[in-house]
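Notebook entry, cofactor series.
This is the third protein in the set we're modelling with a bound small molecule. For this one the ligand is adenosine-5'-triphosphate. I'm keeping the input format identical across the series so the outputs can be compared line by line later. Sequence and SMILES below, as received.
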Amino acid sequence: MIREFSSADILFIVSAVRWTLILSAIAFLGGAIGGLAVALARTAQGRLPRRIAAGFIQVFQGTPLLMQLFLVYFGLAVLGLPIDPLLAAAVALTLHASAYLGEIWRGAIEAVPPGQTEAAVALSLSYRDRMRHVVLPQALRLATAPTVGFLVQLIKGTSLASIIGFTELTRAGQIINNATFKPFLVFGTVAALYFVLCWPLSLLARHMEARMRLAITR
Amino acid sequence: ADLDAVKNAGTVRVGMLVDFPPFGIQDASGKPDGYDADVAKALGEFLGVQAQIVPVTGPNRIPYLLSGQVDVLVASLGITEERAEKVDFSKPYAGISIAVYGDSGLEIAAPEGLAGQSLAVARASTQDTGVSAVAPQGTDIRRFDDDASAVQALMSGQVRLIGLSNVVFSQVSTVAGDRFDKKFDLSSQVQGIAVAPGSDALLEQVNAFVDQAKSDGTLDQIHQKWLGEPLPDFVKNAQ
Amino acid sequence: MTEHAIIMRAVNKYYGAYHALVDIDLTVTRGERIVICGPSGSGKSTLIRTINQLEPIESGTIIVDGVELTAGGENVARVRQDVGMVFQSFNLFPHMTVLENCVLAPMKTRKIPRVEAEATARKYLERVRIPEQADKYPAQLSGGQQQRVAIARALCMKPRIMLFDEPTSALDPEMVKEVLDTMIDLAREGMTMLCVTHEMEFARAVADRVIFMDKGVIVEENAPDQFFGNPQNERLQNFLGQIA
Amino acid sequence: MTEHAIIMRAVNKYYGAYHALVDIDLTVTRGERIVICGPSGSGKSTLIRTINQLEPIESGTIIVDGVELTAGGENVARVRQDVGMVFQSFNLFPHMTVLENCVLAPMKTRKIPRVEAEATARKYLERVRIPEQADKYPAQLSGGQQQRVAIARALCMKPRIMLFDEPTSALDPEMVKEVLDTMIDLAREGMTMLCVTHEMEFARAVADRVIFMDKGVIVEENAPDQFFGNPQNERLQNFLGQIA
Amino acid sequence: MYQFNFQPVFGNLDLLLYGAWLTVRLSLMAMVLGLVVSVLGAVAKTSGIRPLRWLTDVYVEVIRNTPFLVQIFFIFFGLPAAGISLSPNTAALVALVVNVGAYGTEIIRAGIESIPRGQIEAGRALGLGPAQIFRYVVMIPALRNIYPSLTSQFIYLMLTSSVVSVISANDLASAGADLNARTFASFEIYLVLTILYFLLALGFSTLFAAIRRAFFTYPASR
Ligand SMILES: Nc1ncnc2c1ncn2[C@@H]1O[C@H](COP(=O)(O)OP(=O)(O)OP(=O)(O)O)[C@@H](O)[C@H]1O
Ligand SMILES: Nc1ncnc2c1ncn2[C@@H]1O[C@H](COP(=O)(O)OP(=O)(O)OP(=O)(O)O)[C@@H](O)[C@H]1O
Ligand SMILES: [Mg+2]
Ligand SMILES: [Mg+2]
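Returned structure with ligand:
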């Protein structure tokens, strides 16, 4: 009954990349919006938004994504709020990514020299214009490399969504492995696929970091 | 969900494993297949609704049921007392026998011989419970996430013993030849279809289905297809 | 329009427990040019930063161009548009060209159309004698050029008052002169100016009044020839001895 | 011990294609005090950095204290211990107290026991007139104090030669004097010194010779009164006009 | 609706707490060893020796761009084929060290490169050798500069360690899974596990803050 590892299996694993990509895209989009909000709140003048954002980050950086996914999907259902798995994944991944991106971007915003903000204030620019035209564009340059770096972790992290039923790359590998008992072949393929997805991003991050270092030391 | 909800929806959502051959597997096109899949389809026909199969995993199959994400589990779920406290089981629809297997060179004939040995099982599986119940002090029970990992531990030499079902072991033998043999039986284990507590009407219908499928030969036929023999007597006769 | 550009009355400013400005009284007439000097940490920067509310004050009154700066509110924004500021470290926006640096604030806060804003910017870049640098990025300019861009950028808001905080102290000796020349030009045109600097030549050449601060207090205040020729305060005498 | 502290013969240095030092010949007698000046980018820093091999050279010979610096090897380490250097930006180690800054190199390279190293350090801190700052961290000191620590740190290695690269140009005007006074003290004690600076008062007061560089070349070289009073080179005349 | 019943969880709280202790121990050892690997990796990467740099690059990129699950799998199931048979707990530790070492290498390299050149030149001008410069001049400020990234990577490591149950290593997650297998009180267990992980993360943050205060609080230059 043990099946041979066949081309159909490879195809199955490759097509599971679809879910990995969809989940990553959702997480990243949600996280980008949430992360910006968190970062702005974390660098705000008022104490209250700063506290709330800090608490948010502490909770969602301090607990495993696996548990977050489990509690959102099964937990809400148990409380009488059944939720679509995709929505659950979107919620949990967004919260997770918002916390991490928020923290990365806060660092970038704070790394913009205070003189820049002061100059903008002295020119009487409003908070919005100041952020939009002066601070964020400069923060963006500092943030791109770590952001892309996080994206790589996120892509790998979506494998945890298998706990709520997504047959993405890692899960597809497990399923095929259970039928074929060829772990090295199967997980070798899985690892190679992740590498193909992530390596270009890592290169990009490194390239941007190098370019930025040049720009700074110029 | 209870019977009304299933009938209203026109579909019964069935949780099944897809990584537990030959009960639950994926066919070459990636669709769920296997003994459980055929049973699930038959159940759907009996209820007069569409059977929608939801792939679940060993560790999360019960949460799926309890949180209402599926209506029933046809997921090779062995009937045990602890589980019966959480879910309601139908009459047995399948069964496997569980034993301890291991390196052919090892002389072990009874649970006492396990002391000082390391032994792999799939976490939360029937063989996990079975082994844990009889293993003496000093047995190193290593719990893996699924049978495949446990088997891999055996094959790579990380452990020399494994608690496994006869079904999976026969597959192992096809690759490993006579490197491993059976040491002693643990138990035979019957499996039931599970519903969430309180779904009494649904459970009644499921039991009716199991009775009918046993008597009209449907289960024998499916068992023959996947395991090469008719439904064993210990399943037929179990209550 | 009043005749007084800036009036400060009994202004006190604390950083935590540290008393940075102590009962400051200062009146600046329209068109007046004032140089502020004093040892490091004496509160010079703090003083001029309170004038466009980069630093809030704890007590006292500041009236700029007839508008009282009560904490927050509309007034502050209005006053800031009328007060240009040039920092020691330039603080140009590094991701924008010189021209973009100059047009950003007029376009965003005064809602001036781009074409017009650019025309104004070019005019002021001409004025500070670097029209040809308009399309470069700050990092491509020398320190002296950067500081002149900073001056042009402030002028583009057509401020009535200019504040300078040690505008030449981050520059190489050779570049100091370029910037001082630009500032002397401005002074000649009657711009109200407050300038923190230790360039005594500049003070002698253009200042109407020189102010000496020490430990948050205005210790001496006089016309330049009196100030340098006949200092009263002992700390000031010492100070002048040191930097000469 | 030879009578010559430093001998440079036909030294050439390139940064990529850029010819930063062109055929430099320079001999410094023991105890001599030399001031180097010149426009930005003329190669002053490069020149003094070649002397303790912070920059390798492409051709020519440098002999320091009788030891020839061939590329790498033992010689370089030995020479560096004999040559103290003070940077424009201090470069104190921020994670160590003043005292730790001073004892690190003697303990690690000369293997002097801590007690002895600390005694020496305190002596030199006294000499630069900040003994009471020994246990502070660099960030807690003013710029002038930091630079004096940097001088003390270099002295703790008991160097025969001191190199200064614009040691006062990052300082506030008031602090310049503190540091210059320290340097004048050192000069009086007969230390061999090479100093890049634009402080003309200092040059007049202590220099035996003033050197003017332009585009990697030593253009003029003279005793201070001649150098300032009667400059020959046109570029130098111009330069003196600008910084005066 | 589901009836929550925390009895099975609290009745077995000692098991979970023991699991939490295992996670703490595993993570702490992985952090310390991982830091050593990271520093060595960063030194190799910033060294002038080309093959060494190249090798480190390969290590870092392979590890950072493949999932931890696959890495731990290969270490536990794959190494026996090469004659290296590690116990589950050792394999878990090795996998974590290898993983965090790759991330840490990049982080610490960035820290080393953030040290102003003048600092290194000052060291050289004082006659210190390259190793002495690294040890006395570069290391502390470099670690201080990247301390936040490093510690958040460590927290991430602690959370990642929950995966080690796949090779039957013991930790908090596997204690939870075992309890789950016995009681099937999944929601209750997961909720408590999440809280325990949160508390562990909080504990580690506090520890890291204390370490920072002890070793890295010299006044920053203005
Ligand atoms: N944000 C702040 N928090 C706390 N203290 C501050 C702050 N800014 C300035 N100070 C303190 O207030 C005093 C006055 O500072 P200020 O910058 O106005 O001095 P200054 O006269 O401009 O000095 P310098 O010539 O060095 O620029 C100093 O003692 C300084 O340490
Ligand atoms: N690492 C380097 N790579 C390339 N070019 C360099 C490098 N360091 C210096 N230069 C160039 O060499 C020339 C001499 O530089 P150097 O720093 O010696 O000048 P300087 O006289 O000390 O100037 P300053 O007064 O600005 O300190 C300059 O044109 C500079 O741009
Ligand atoms: Mg100031
Ligand atoms: Mg220089």
